[in-house]
Design a protein that fits this description.
Structural class: alpha+beta
Bound molecules: fe (ii) ion
Strand content: 5-15%
Helix content: 55-70%
Distance between the termini: 36 Å
CATH superfamily of the largest domain: Hypothetical protein af1432
Shape: elongated
Strand order of the largest sheet: 3-2-1-4-5
CATH architecture of the largest domain: Orthogonal Bundle
CATH topology of the largest domain: Hypothetical protein af1432
Length: 381
């Protein structure tokens, strides 16, 4: 198998498994699923130019294509696990396969261990099965986590597109953000806190993406800890995704500056809560909570911070939560102008800020979420 084939195979598997993760989080007809299916099909067509049919087999616990093991990646691991889960020993895809047939394959891969998938051969896709065997329990959560890491990577493009639209003064696509937040919320529902674990682990260079999704996941975790559910939980997620939207109006040179900001640059930087709130206020479909959160998220619990207001300003719960998540994310994520800190150091610093910069009870509740997460991670090792 040539290096080129290996690359096309990897792309095919990646599109296929990411489509399956999206299908599990949203639904099979979601635009993102259909788009990824088409991309997978493109790769299959390329592979068919040098292989009569595309046969993937599981031999001695490895995924084999054209008599060679497929290179190791999160995607091949996920496909391997999914095939094993449904007792599929080999998969043959013939030339002429339709996008709809791949979609049926995606549907099978997207099934959870407790959901039965019906394996029916189609005109160009054929399955070979092995005897039923029981899976180890911990393999399931590992697969779920891998899938979630992949979806985070896919949504990166969508979020960057939304933010780029803001920068180019286009209309904000609130529905896209709503989809993403709903996906996060249902992922929370099915995988509990393991989903939160990926928040600080992602090390994308696109700061806006990483930061927005981190704050969204952290705020959703805080809200769930307080027992918040339903439409309010959804609004809290959207508000978190958009809290820094005002930064899109700041010169990227200032935003990405690694040295200390000058007084003038700092003044410009401090305008982002106000410009963000004004922008959101004039955008149809944005929840009021997002406007308020964008405006208040740099105000401190003790009344200092910015923007300055002429009278005492009672802040919203979502703003307090955003300030807490923001403080945590700034310390946890490696930024160009400071090194990231260890979790124990972060907890200590945050406790020190409780009651001055941060809301004291909410900070306590947030640290509790992190503790639970830590304990969960230790138990699953
Ligand atoms: Fe901010
Ligand atoms: Fe922020």
């Amino acid at each position: 198998m040539s290096i080129n084939d290996q690359e096309h195979l990897q792309l095919f598997i990646r599109h296929l498994t990411t489509a399956a993760t999206n299908a599990a989080l949203y639904h099979l007809e979601h635009l993102q699923v259909l788009r990824l299916c088409r991309k997978a099909l493109e790769q299959v067509k390329i592979l068919h130019t040098s292989h009569n049919s595309l046969v993937l087999k599981i031999i001695e616990g490895r995924l084999i294509f054209a008599n060679k093991p497929a290179s190791h990646s999160l995607a091949t691991e996920r496909l391997h696990e999914a095939l094993q889960l449904h007792n599929i020993s080999h998969l043959r895809i013939e030339p002429g396969v339709y996008s709809e047939e791949l979609l049926a394959l995606v549907s099978i891969i997207s099934k959870r261990p407790d959901q039965k998938a019906e394996l029916i051969d189609s005109e160009h896709i054929h399955f070979g099965q092995v005897e039923v065997r029981f899976r180890k329990k911990n393999q399931v959560s590992q697969a779920a986590l891998l899938g979630l890491a992949e979806i985070a990577a896919t949504e990166k493009d969508q979020i960057l597109e939304i933010y780029d639209g803001v920068r180019d003064k286009q209309q904000l696509k609130v529905s896209g953000i709503n989809d993403i937040v709903n996906g996060f919320i249902s992922a929370f529902g099915s995988h509990s806190d393991s989903f939160l674990a990926i928040a600080p682990l992602r090390s994308m260079d696109e700061y806006t993406y990483t930061h927005s999704t981190n704050i969204c996941l952290l705020n959703l975790a805080q809200a769930r800890q307080l027992g918040i559910e339903g439409p309010l939980l959804n609004e809290i997620g959207i508000a978190a995704m958009l809290h820094d939207v005002g930064k899109m109006f700041i010169d990227p040179k200032i935003l990405g500056k690694s040295d200390k900001l000058s007084e003038e640059e700092w003044r410009i930087m401090q305008q982002h809560p106000r410009t963000g709130a004004e922008y959101l206020l004039n955008t149809p479909g944005v929840p009021r909570l997002a406007v308020v959160t964008a405006f208040e998220h740099h105000m401190r619990y003790d009344g200092t911070g910015y923007p300055k207001t002429s009278r005492p300003w009672p802040q919203n719960l979502s703003s307090y939560m955003t300030a807490i998540s923001d403080t945590y994310d700034a310390m946890r994520t490696h930024r160009s102008y400071e090194e990231s800190l260890e979790p124990e150091q972060i907890s200590e610093i945050m406790l020190g800020l409780a009651g001055s910069k941060l809301h004291p009870q909410l900070t306590g509740s947030f640290l509790q979420v992190l503790n639970n997460l830590d304990r969960g991670a230790q138990q699953s090792v």
